[in-house]
Specification:
Layout: H1 16-94, H2 99-114, H3 124-137, H4 145-148, H5 154-165, H6 170-186, H7 194-212, H8 216-225, H9 239-271, H10 274-287, H11 292-318, H12 324-329, H13 332-356
Keywords: Coiled coil, Stress response
Biased composition (Polar residues): 155-166
Coiled coil: 31-65, 246-273
Length: 357
């Protein structure tokens, strides 16, 4: 007998119920991943928000403390500055000086300003030159190039872009939609009970603050806190409903990612400002056991002593206690400071030269 042939079985097509189950399983997995990402982003935003707030509070605290302690010295420096300007004015108006002496004293006066020892103060001739420049730049004629471009600045361009385009972006639209949803439910005017009105009023304060700050994370937290987010029963929902829920969560996560990146950038910018650098220096000094404010006050006191010495020196010349030759040499304390600066510069130059070898 001839051997019987084995009949090759054809694969049976999966039933519609099996395909649906596989599709729903994929959506379940996608939903799980999106929810995990959502929770992670909310935590990171909260952490970064606290970090930024702490840093800004530290800037304010350090600045306030420094201002409180340095203010008396600063006020004294301002008074000395005014006094020195007045003394030079008296020298120019009351002392009988030759043309050469007048020029030499004027140079001393200007050098003190250029060196930052006293505030800059321009003479009448310089003021007239400035007025001519002002007239040129304030020319309103159409041919004036500077007038055409006078109002341009990156800030203006940015604000113009914001006003025209901000509400057109998908992110801002979704933030606004979330805000309107919360506002429609918690507006105090929509309830009559006084206790409920007060509660809604407090909620709306948070909603408004979050909306003004573009804080989508807080808006979503408020939604979830008050059970306003649409809950999906995945076991009894259609594939279409589950897909819509996943798409909504994906959009939420994209907004949260944008907010997270903005917070990181804002913190980075804050750290790179002069105030941020001040806080970093403040921390570094504290780690080394140094009182940073005392260091700054010590420098200011040294500056105060130098300016007082200059004031006394100028006054002595006005009162004819020293000759013009002595005056042109400068006060001893200032010569000492200049010599020390030159010595430091020489040492730095020498170190650099040795380092190159």
């Amino acid at each position: 007998m001839a051997p019987s042939k084995k009949i090759k079985q054809q694969p049976q097509p999966s039933s519609p119920s099996q395909s649906t189950a596989l599709g729903l399983s994929a959506f379940h997995e996608r939903r799980r991943v999106l929810e995990e990402e959502h929770e992670w982003l909310l935590k990171q935003i909260q952490r970064k928000r606290k970090e930024l707030k702490k840093f800004l509070d530290e800037i304010r605290s350090v600045a306030t403390e420094m201002f409180a302690q340095a203010s008396p010295i600063y006020q004294k420096l301002m008074e000395l500055d005014t006094e020195i300007h007045d003394l030079f004015e008296q020298i120019f108006t009351t002392r009988k000086l030759g043309k050469k002496s007048q020029q030499d004293i004027t140079k001393v006066y200007r050098n003190l300003q250029f060196m930052g020892m006293i505030s800059p103060k321009f003479d009448q001739d310089e003021d007239e030159d400035d007025e001519e420049l002002d007239e040129m730049f304030n020319d309103t004629s159409e041919d004036n190039f500077f007038n055409k471009n006078a109002h341009y600045s990156p800030e203006n361009e940015s604000s113009q872009f914001t006003s025209e385009s901000a509400y057109k972006s998908p992110e801002s639209k979704q933030i606004r939609q979330t805000f309107l949803k919360l506002a429609s439910l918690f507006h105090p005017d929509k309830v009559t009970d006084e206790e409920t009105q007060m509660r809604h009023n407090e909620i709306m304060k948070e909603v408004n603050r979050a909306y003004q700050e573009g804080d989508i994370a807080r808006l979503l937290e408020l939604e979830r806190q008050h059970h306003l987010q649409e809950e999906i029963d995945f076991d009894n929902s259609s594939k279409s409903d589950i897909e819509k829920a996943c798409n909504r969560r994906e959009k939420d996560n994209q907004l949260l990612k944008t907010q997270y990146e903005n917070l990181k950038r804002e913190l980075r910018l804050a750290r790179n400002t002069p105030e941020g650098e001040m806080v970093k220096d403040y921390r570094a000094c504290q780690k080394e056991g140094i009182d940073p404010i005392e260091e700054i006050l010590s420098e200011m006191k040294g500056q105060l002593e130098l300016i007082e010495n200059i004031r006394d020196f100028v006054r002595d010349f006005l009162d004819k206690k020293i000759t013009i030759q002595q005056f042109l040499k400068g006060p001893s304390l200032m010569r000492k400071a200049t010599a020390e600066e030159e010595e430091e510069m020489f040492e730095m130059l020498l170190e650099n030269l040795l380092g190159l070898k």
